[in-house]
Amino acid sequence: MYNILICDDEKDIVSALKIYLSSENYNTYEAYTGKEALQVIKNNDIHLVLMDIMMPEMDGLAAMVKIRELNNIPIILLTAKGEDTDKILGLNIGADDYITKPFNPVEVLARVKSQLRRYMQLGGGAVKTHNLCIGGIELDDKTKTVTRDGDIVNLTPTEYDILKLFMENPGEVFSPKTIYNRVWNETSFGSESTVAVHIRHLREKLEINPSEPRHLKVVWGQGYKME
After folding, report:
1. Per-residue pLDDT for 187 more than 70?
2. Distance (Å, rounded) from C-alpha 19 to C-alpha 77?
3. pLDDT for the residue numbered 103
4. Domain ranges in the chain?
5. Under a CB-based contact definition with an 8 Å cutoff, are residues 225 and 217 in contact?
C-alpha cells in the first residue's frame, strides 16, 4: 500500500482528497503547513506528496526545496488558476506535476497513479537497509529484527515501531501523546496509559533490570527517551 501525504491549509480540500485516495486503497497522511509536511516525511515512509503552494508558516515551494534535500519522492503541486508563475517556479525547483484547483477526482487519481508508476519503475520503492544500534540493542529495519547482546528479541509490531522511533532519535524526549500520534497515526485519546503499557513491555524484553532501565528512561512530567 502506498503512503500519500496531503498538505493543504484548507481542511475541506484535505478531507476531499482523502476520500478520493482512500477509494483506491491509498494510505493517507495529513499536514496543514509546510513545516508539518516535513515532519511527516521525516517520520514516515511517504511515497508521494500532494502539496499546496500558499500556506502559513512555510509555503509549499519552500517545503518542497527542503523535501528535495531528503529524497526524490514525487511531488504534485495543488495550485490556484492564477498561480502560473508559481507553477513554473515549482516545476523548475523540483515538482513533478501540478493540479489546478478546483480539481476533478478522476484527474487527481490519474496523475497520482502516473507519478507512482514512474517512481517505482525507477527503483523508488526499493527497500533500504536501516541498521540502528544503541548499547547492546540493535534494530535491523530491513529484516525487522531486534537483538539484545546478539540474542533475538521478539517484539510485537507496535513495540517495534515505538523502539524504532526512540532509536532514530536518541536522547529526544517524546510525550505519550507524541508517541501515540507517531506510532498509531490516530488521535491520542487515552494515549498515556496505552503507551505506558507498551513501554513497560519493551523494558521487560530489552532491559537487564526493567525496574532500573539503562536505556528506556522516563522524564517525569514530560515523557520518555532512549539513552
Report:
1. no
2. 18
3. 86
4. 3-121, 131-226
5. yes
* Distance from chain centroid for Cα 203: 25
- The answer to whether 28 and 108 have CB atoms below 8 angstroms apart is no
- Check whether 170 has a pLDDT greater than 90: no
Render pLDDT for 50-79 as a digit per residue (tens, 0 to 9): 999 888 888 888 998 888 887 888 899 988
CATH class of 3-121: alpha beta
8 A C-beta contact, residue 29 and residue 40: yes
Task: Taking residues 133-149, report their average pLDDT.
Answer: 87
- HSE-up (13 A, CA, CB side) for residue 33: 6
Give the span between the Cα atoms of 179 and 188, in whole angstroms.
Answer: 9
Which residues, 6+ apart, have CB-to-CB distance to 138 below 8 Å?
131, 132, 146, 147, 148
Rounded-to-integer distance, Cα 3 and Cα 47, Å? 5
Picking from 173, 170, 166, the residue whose alpha carbon sits closest to that of residue 202 is 166
Fold of 131-226: Arc Repressor Mutant, subunit A (1.10.10)
Measured distance CA(133)–CA(163) in Å, rounded: 11
Give CA 198 to chain center in angstroms.
21
Grid cell for residue 159:
513495540
